[in-house]
Design brief:
The chain has about 80 residues and is mainly alpha-helical. The chain has helices at about 5-20, 20-55. It has a domain at about 20-55. The longest helix has about 35 residues, at about 20-55.
């Protein structure tokens, strides 16, 4: 038990390529890369949006935000 040698990983890679094919694996890789890129951009935008919101209302400025929460209809 423990780590696998390079030969184990090469055999697994060959089997995966035979089962799925290289075109499908390339498409999966592109989709996964696009998802990761989109996630990073979304996190960056959220951080910038949070920074903008914090700049608009400075802490200790004496401003109060009034809000009301409503329950969503489940229909």
């Amino acid at each position: 038990m423990g780590s696998f040698s390079i030969w184990h990983w090469l055999i697994v890679l060959v089997i995966v390529m035979l089962v799925f094919g290289t075109k499908k694996l390339r498409n999966i890789g592109q989709d996964l890369g696009g998802a990761v890129k989109g996630f990073k951009e979304g996190m960056r935008d959220a951080d910038q949006g949070a920074g903008d919101a914090n700049q608009k209302i400075a802490p200790g400025s004496g401003q109060t935000i009034d809000a009301e929460a409503r329950e969503k209809n489940k229909s």
